[in-house]
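Attaching the record inline, Q. Sequence:
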Amino acid sequence: MRRSRFFCFYLFIGILVFNSCAKVDNNARDFSFVFMTDLHLKPDSTISSAFDRVIDTVNSLGVDFVISGGDQVYDVMRGNVQRSDSLFQFFLEKKKRFNVPVYTTVGNHDLFGIYEESDVDSTHIDYKTGMYQRYLGEPYYSFDHKNWHFVVLNSLDVQDKKYIGKVDSDQMKWLKADLAEIPAETPVVVALHIPLVSAFKQVYPATGSDEAYHKPMVINRSEILELLQQYNVKLVLQGHLHWLEDLAIENRTHYITGGSVAGRPSWRGTRHGPQGFLHFHVSGDEVTWDYIDYGGGKSFRVN
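Structure, as predicted:
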């Protein structure tokens, strides 16, 4: 009888210790991060001051890292090496003020010299993503954080001296290989600039019969979505449109277009919502987010 009591006592203590360790382990997996997009930075005193407020706000949140969804600078599509260099240098100076790592994404305004009126052509070393890579690194990559897998894609290409939404064939091969390396249950976050899924064109339909307007913004979207459906993709974080939306597809994946730091029109208005960014909270496999209006200090929470 005495031995049985001792066994029950130690079993009870063991359960308490196990539950306590499990709780500590779960808490250790919790983290938060910021997704901000369409910064459209240039060395203007008003813009510089506003973005300093963004940085101070992010630093006060105690997040683990920041993902920038593209259009870090405004802009380099028309060439001019000296001016374009100065824009990326300006962004890098601001980036240093963040207390945490900042992961960047290629936006259309980050593509160097692609327009007809550019003073360089496709033979220039900085053409398209060349200058971006020189300052910010690879145009697509992945990283892991506390059992979550993050994939940053380049959803842009160039055709007829204009940008188009496309994930090219080399990148698709890389993406398939990258995702094949992770366990099936791993939560995945994908970030890219041009949206894969959005209701923007339904809410704001084109006037007249603009057939191109109603085509997918990323021309090989179906191929990408078919691949992503094979994995535990929790979030697809998007930019470009300067508006905020959260589309929960099959109660499985949230396609979130992240508003805009610069507003719409860029640095001149707040059409489609206030200037701001997304603050994500991750606990285990669950995610919630706030939208932070860095100007007025307002926020709201979406579960």
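Residues 6-18, 20-24 have pLDDT under 50 and may be disordered. The longest helix spans residues 2-29.

More tomorrow.
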